[in-house]
Amino acid sequence: MLHQYVRAGLAGETGRQAARLLGNYVGYRQALEQAEAQWMAEQPLAPGEKLERTIALRRQHLGPLTSSQLFAGEDAHQRFLIAREEVRANRDLSNDQRQAALSRLKENLRSGALLVNSKGTSAPEDLRNARENWRKLGLSEATRLQLEQQTLGLVAARDLTGSNSWDWQQRYDHFKKERNLVLRAGLSEEEKQRQIDTLLVPTSIATNWTPSPTGSPSICGQASASARPG
Fold it and tell me: Where is this region: Disordered (predicted)?
């Protein structure tokens, strides 16, 4: 009933989109309530597993892109809190190891690495070494930030499109190798970034960046094509 009021109160396509989103969200909340009861009946879930199942269910109802746009920040914070408690509870860690792990978590939260589920890829962890290497190459802070965001954007595309983890990692490793060759070449920073961009697919709000398996542009599936109500 509420989504009908929303549709009536907003004109044209805006009203239809808002009503559709609200209806999908209500459906998601109802499905989540049922799923949580089922999860509890089967066996208690670890907090991290429960979060990822919740995210997957939400994407079924809202679509991957809309779900990410609305909840990515909240999900990142939840991943941080869960991981922080796991580190604190790990008795196998020394005090120095625990502090180092907590520092890495804070850095991952700051950089955006926790915005998506990066399980199955080493890309976010690789960023630590990459940042130092980029600094040693004399790249400007603006260029280093752009490269960092580019890497995390690739991980986000992988997560949103549900790409095969092994296949994606192979593509990413090839892209990373090609990118390093460009970064070490005697080129201006503008030319370096231009050549790196040619290794990637142009993106819009509906199209994700994915590494080309050959180092040349390839077409990636659109997130919006899978962003239909579950």
Answer: 207-230
Please report where in the chains the tokens 């892109």 appear, as a residue: 65
Measured N-to-C along each axis, helices 189-197 and 165-183 cross at an angle, to the nearest 10 degrees, of: 150
pLDDT at position 191 over 80:
yes
Cβ pair 124, 169 in contact under 8 A: no
Let me know: does 230 contact 26? Beta carbons within 8 Å. no
Report the C-alpha gap between 60 and 226 in whole angstroms: 9
207 phi/psi in degrees, rounded to 5: -125, 135
Instruction: Give CA separation, 133 vs 73, 120, 138, in Å.
Output: 28, 23, 9
CA–CA dist 194, 185 (Å, integer):
13
**Cut 0.70: pTM above it:** no
Each residue of 116-147: pLDDT tens digit? Answer: 777 777 777 787 788 888 888 898 988 888 88
Q: What is the maximum span of the chain, computed from C-alpha positions, in angstroms?
A: 63
Pair of tokens at residue 33: 């309530």
Question: How many of the other CB atoms lie within 10 Å of CB of 161?
Answer: 19
